Amino acid sequence: MLERVAFEYAVIRIVPRVERGEYLNAGVILICRRHRFLDARTALDQVRLRALAPYLDEETVTLIGRQLDLICRICSGSPDAGPIGQLTQRERWHWLAAPASTIVQPGPVHSGLGTDPAATLDHLYVDLVQVSAET
Question: What own/partner pairs with CB < 8 Å and gap ≥ 24 does 50-56 have?
């Protein structure tokens, strides 16, 4: 039997107008320290974003997509992720999961137990991001 280990995750949200409290799930970040795993899955559903925030211009939507891509690069520690991408894995997680008041922001951090962090990330992504995009 595989050992279950602790992980933490946060859902990445697009929040066009913070004061309204409306958001669109656009990704998941997951860390499992025991397996030295930090990764993210993101996607921008532009149709749903336009329905939620028709006032956003094309430039803003493009910047949101770039920000989601940057989150994935920061998780992997990619050299093109800037100075944040060069921090330790733990520091990158804390930076990505820290509360923010921008359009792209993490939701609350949740924890769980699992045996395979990559499979857990895929499952959370499908359950929290893709399914909501298809309904």
Answer: 52/14, 52/16, 52/22, 52/24, 53/16, 53/17, 55/16, 56/16
Instruction: Say how far apart CA 71 and CA 67 lie, in whole Å.
Output: 6
Positions of the chain with pLDDT lower than 50, given as ranges: 133, 135
CA distance 82 to 70: 9
| Chain centre to alpha carbon of residue 107 | 9
Question: In the structure encoding, which two tokens stand for residue 52, read together?
Answer: 């939620």
- Distance of alpha carbon 102 from alpha carbon 24, whole angstroms: 13
Domain ranges of the chain: 5-127
The label of the residue with tokens 């993490």 reads 106
Q: What is the pTM of this model?
A: 0.91
